[in-house]
User: Fold GNAT family N-acetyltransferase from Salinispirillum sp. LH 10-3-1.
Amino acid sequence: MSIRAAQLRDITAIYRVLCSVIAEQEFLMSQQKPELPMFTRFIEANLKRGNPVWIAQEGQRTVGWCDVYPRGSDVQRHVGRVGMGVAAESRGKGYGKAMLAATIESSWQAGFTRLELEVFTTNRSAIALYTSMGFVKEGLHRRVRKDSRGYRDTYTMAFLKPES
Assistant:
């Protein structure tokens, strides 16, 4: 298992993992993959600003990512939105936990003091991971996504930087 900070050369590999997770239609809000140029600009901007972007690798193959980007307004730049995913065949091996731990630590170093994420209420393994790492449920959002199976609910979860 290898976890490291992402570099520009990793963008296409991260994109492949993202698209594979989106294709499952189970874990991410997105139902359609983003266009590669738009995704590239997003990751490039995060890396340029020093926002955390981590990847997990099995050998030379990228199998997961975890990133944090700030909310849009100046008064909320201390709030980081967490996004992550692990390729189906690599789940349950500790990649998510390792990436999230690295992302949390580097987020505090980057100046974030609050991390938040949204997770489907049916994604019990992710909820257990986030809870084990210090995230707490802050809200239930009903009927957030509608797909072929009907409506899906999400939890908002957050983790505040411990006071020193």
